[in-house]
Design goal:
Mean pLDDT: 91
Low-confidence stretches: 496-503
Strand order of the largest sheet: 8-7-6-9-5-10-11-12
CATH architecture of the largest domain: 3-Layer(aba) Sandwich
Shape: globular
Radius of gyration: 25 Å
CATH topology of the largest domain: UDP-N-acetylmuramoyl-L-alanine:D-glutamate ligase
Number of domains: 3
Strand content: 15-25%
Number of strands: 23
Structural class: alpha/beta
Number of helices: 17
Largest sheet: 8 strands, mixed
Helix content: 25-40%
Distance between the termini: 80 Å
Length: about 500
């Protein structure tokens, strides 16, 4: 009997051709199809039927036993089966296949969604859970794997087949949990379906990905899909965010009735809130007030929003089954995610590399650091090409409102003309009474601020964070903000009296 018979889901009857062959798995890339596999033909963004047909022909030529597709126009062919909700069931099919052929104890899933904070929260959860002697995988923007051994990720949320394959692999390696980022794209496209998600976390929502979702409301609804997973036992929601009600409503309407927990930095009505918050250049301290007690927390993480991120992480880790007191004790050892408020210190100057690539994220980073700065607060940033053009002047305005001096530079132009990006960044902006520099070469911009920044200054280099490349004309070149800052610092001339003696 074909394995496919055991795992088939959905309302459509299983096609006859699927019963006739030994089935060896699914494949999304026609170039990589192996004999015995079923090719998955999904609708591309451009809805190019001719291209889709070419992929189907290639897959069958490579001895695929058949094709499952969501494209009705191509379903008239032998060995092609139309499944209208294919994206929704693909992860489920893959998970069932892996469990039938190689059974493992499925990972307990903790998923984090929101515009900002997903990466840091999921990373902190993984660190906290790992501190309690339980293996925890992490999946998201800064890499996938079991801490500390991460491999670079192609997407925030992998496609349904890759995701289930990865989760299966981490379970075989001994992990018990996974903390993963749930992107709006991933949720809307059903990539997380099939995951055993027990806990869902919501951080915040601000303008991002409107080139894909169209409106902020549609973007919020995509995020809210996470809180409709019927496997959920607990949801954790930041009620300080303006869109929290969208998530709360989704959670309340979930038929599985998950426990709803709220957190806040300002509202004592939240289940988890704080008091006596103090900022230092070395991090922050605060009192955590929770349903199970009050705790003094010493955090090594810089910034206001990292207090929010830490709060969300502690709640999620507690409800994964660990003592809050034990988790709080480990907090001073947390490292957080690379490229998220990552600090490079040079004498009395602070250089902060951060992934902030939305107006709101940039505002958050700058306002947070303003609490610490004794000199000038610099902002160095660019805007990505082939993305939402409407947010470009908003990024510039955010920088001008919250920092001075400001340096406009490049990010990832991708395939777009950089001149157009800079023109968009300056559209309708009044630069009067601001110190503004426009340096198109990002490396030169970093060298410039390292040369110019004075003692007591904080320099924010925003937009790329953990990325170690710059994409120009569709080609990726090696580029790492952290390395560039350090290199520029090292290249600075030093006075003779600061040199080591020659003996």
């Amino acid at each position: 009997m074909s394995t496919l018979v055991e795992i088939w889901v959905g309302e459509q009857p299983m096609p006859k051709w699927a019963e006739q062959y030994d089935f060896t798995g699914f494949c999304l890339d026609s170039r990589n199809v192996l004999p015995g596999q079923i090719f998955i033909a999904l609708q591309g963004i451009n809805r190019n039927l001719g291209k889709a047909q070419e992929h189907i022909d290639e897959a069958l030529a490579r001895c695929a036993i058949g094709v499952l597709t969501e494209i009705e126009e191509l379903s008239h062919q032998d060995n092609v089966c139309y499944i209208p909700n294919l994206r929704e069931v693909l992860g489920i099919l893959q998970k069932k296949y892996l469990q039938v052929t190689d059974p493992v104890t499925a990972l307990r899933g903790i998923a984090v969604t929101g515009t900002n904070g997903k990466t840091t929260i999921s990373r902190l959860i993984a660190e906290l859970v790992s501190s309690q002697a339980k293996g925890c995988a992490v999946m998201g923007t800064t890499g996938n794997g079991i801490l500390p051994n991460l491999t670079p990720s192609t997407h925030t949320t992998l496609d349904a087949l890759q995701l289930q394959q990865a989760l299966h692999g981490y379970a075989k390696q001994g992990a018990n949990f996974v903390a993963l980022e749930a992107s709006s794209h991933g949720l809307e496209q059903g990539r997380l379906n099939g995951c055993d998600l027990e806990i869902a976390v919501y951080s915040n929502l601000s303008r991002d990905h409107l080139d894909y979702h169209g409106t902020l409301e549609a973007y919020a609804e995509a995020k809210a899909l996470l809180f409709k997973f019927t496997t959920l036992k607990v949801v954790v929601i930041n009620i300080d965010d303006a869109h929290a009600n969208v998530m709360l409503t989704a959670a309340k309407e979930n038929p599985s009735k998950p426990k709803i927990l709220t957190y806040s930095l300002t509202q004592t009505s939240a289940d988890y809130h704080i008091d006596h918050l103090q900022y230092r250049l070395s991090g922050a301290s605060f009192t955590l007030i929770s349903p199970t007690g009050t705790f003094a927390v010493q955090s090594p993480l810089l910034g206001h929003f990292n207090v929010e991120n830490l709060l969300a992480s502690l709640i999620a880790a507690e409800y994964a089954g660990f003592s809050l007191a034990d988790l709080v004790q480990f907090v001073p050892q947390l490292k957080g995610a690379p490229g998220r408020m990552q600090v490079i210190q040079d004498a009395d100057r602070l250089f902060v590399v951060d992934y902030a690539h939305t107006p709101d994220a940039l505002i958050q980073v700058l306002t947070t650091l303003k609490r610490h700065v004794t000199g000038q607060l610099w902002a160095v940033f660019g805007c990505g090409g082939d993305r939402d053009r409407g947010k470009r002047p908003l990024m510039t305005q955010a920088a001008l409102d919250h920092a001075n001096p400001v340096v406009l530079t490049s990010d990832n132009p991708r395939t777009e003309n950089p001149e157009q990006i800079f023109a968009d960044m300056k559209q309708g902006i009044d630069f009067a009474e601001h110190s503004v520099h426009e340096i198109h070469d990002r490396r030169e911009a970093i060298k410039f601020v390292v040369a110019q920044a004075q003692a007591g200054d904080i320099v924010v280099i925003a937009g790329k964070g953990h990325e170690n490349y710059q994409e120009v004309d569709g080609v990726r070149h090696w580029f790492d903000d952290v390395v560039e800052v350090q290199s520029a610092i090292n290249a600075q001339p030093h006075p003779v009296d600061s040199a080591y003696p020659a003996h």
